[in-house]
Amino acid sequence: MRILADQHIHYLDQLIPSYAEIVHYDSSEGIPRLEGFDAWILRTVTKVNPKTVPSLPEELKFIGSASAGTDHIDREYLSDNGIQFDHSPGCNANAVAEYVLTSMLTWCSSTRRELSNHKVGIIGMGHTGGALAKKLDAIGVSYASYDPPKALREESFRSCHLDTLKDCDILSFHLPYIDQGRYPTHHFMPDILSLTPKHKLIINAARGGIIKEDYLLRHNELISLPNKKISFVLDVWETEPVPDKVLVNLAFIATPHIAGYSKQAKIQASKGVLRGLLSFFDTEWTDSKWQHEQMDSTKTKLGEASHRGFNKKTNTLSLSVLHGLHNYDNEMRKLINLPGQGADLDQFNTSIARGFQALRNTIELRNEFAHTTFPKGLPDDLRPVFAPD
Fold it and tell me: Which residue in 213, 240, 331, 368 is the catalytic one?
């Protein structure tokens, strides 16, 4: 079995069976040559459709994405060509939920608020929205769940009304990107849900096109009082991999599409797609010794230096340092504010795009909180955040 794989997919080499031959390619150089391979494993940076990949070799029987999302894949196109597709649904749900919760708590710390005094609207109750809901439940934060398609599929789930979201203080988006059909999510804000005076913080760690970014900018421009402007946390961008510079600089937190970047999420992503591949080729999956060692590895400890400025009342500085949120945000701002924008805009945008992808490829993976020692000095009411699911 010959497998072609993006070289930036973490832990694939350690998990793949020894009898399979794996050849790596650099996704930053475009679509690779596919001839001579039985399977192709890629990431969300690679789009597969008739335009990007006009022809698919006959010997290629399987394409897998080491990701939760699939909007970069034209699945009908693959089916028409007799190619099986699989991915890793839910692989990074906990990692993204931790990113979102840390962002909320960091914002509360910065604005001297208590998260427990705010209502959160979770828009999309799939794997990630569900993981966030569990964490909010665990620390006593009220929330409303909005997901009409899920309510149609599952009798036990009840979606809140759209009007309920208008009365939430914080909105967190966890929708797939869908540009047509009964429940499109393209520009969900403002086409389906507009901002209201009640909204204080908007978080998007799903897909960039779900929120119309110009709408966020125009809305805040119309508000004269700084304390009335809406804060936003953005991990995904409508013009990715070239984010809007103004939006990055105005965002409370801006990161380069890395909300799901944890060691545990990447192991699950590779494991999930490999399970699908091996099942398709009628080969049995067995957990490797390496995998057990990694998933049960020694917990990360937070050094004493990270506690400088720790505020016991707002209780979040240590959490954001431990998560790595500030580092991700700083790297993003350094990239977007590189000098040289005036001379050649196309060349500058190319440089930003390369830098954006380089950040995604090189940022150090963190341990999720369940694999982290509970920091000394952090209030006990956050202890459930560090508990295994």
Answer: 240
Could you give the C-alpha distances from 243 to 115, 188, 257, 322, in angstroms and in order?
29, 19, 11, 26
Range of the domain at 78: 2-87+262-295
Could you tell me if 232 and 365 lie in one domain? yes
DSSP letter for each residue of 237-251: -TTTTS--HHHHHHS
Number of domains in the chain: 2
161 and 228 together in one domain? yes
207 given a catalytic annotation: yes
207, 219, 323, 360: which is the annotated catalytic residue?
A: 207
Residue 19 lies in a domain: yes
Is residue 213 exposed (0-12), middle (13-18) or buried (19+ Cβ within 10 Å)?
A: buried
pTM of structure: 0.90
Residues 272 and 357 in one domain: no
Same domain, yes or no: 104 and 201 = yes
The active-site residue, picked from 257, 323, 360, 371, is 257
Q: Is 257 a catalytic residue?
A: yes
**Cα gap 306→384, rounded to integer Å:** 21
> Do 234 and 99 share a domain, yes or no?
yes
Q: Would you place residue 320 in the very low, low, confident or very high pLDDT band (cuts 50, 70, 90)?
A: confident
Nearest residue to 178 via CA among 153, 158, 206, 205: 206
Q: Specify whether 56 is located in the same domain as 136.
A: no
Q: How confident is the model at residue 345 (pLDDT cuts 50, 70, 90)?
A: confident
Alpha-carbon distance of 147 to 175, in angstroms, equals 9
Say how far apart CA 9 and CA 45 lie, in whole Å: 11
What confidence tens digit (pLDDT) does each residue in 153-163 have? Answer: 999 999 999 99
* Separation CA 257–CA 96 (nearest Å): 10
**Spatial CA neighbour of 28 closest among 43, 11, 50, 49:** 43
Instruction: Indicate if 232 and 268 belong to the same structural domain.
Output: no
Is residue 230 over pLDDT 50?
Answer: yes
Tokens of 119: 């209502």
Helix (H) or strand (E) holding 130: helix 127-138
Query: Would you mind telling me the total number of residues written for the chain in this entry?
Result: 389
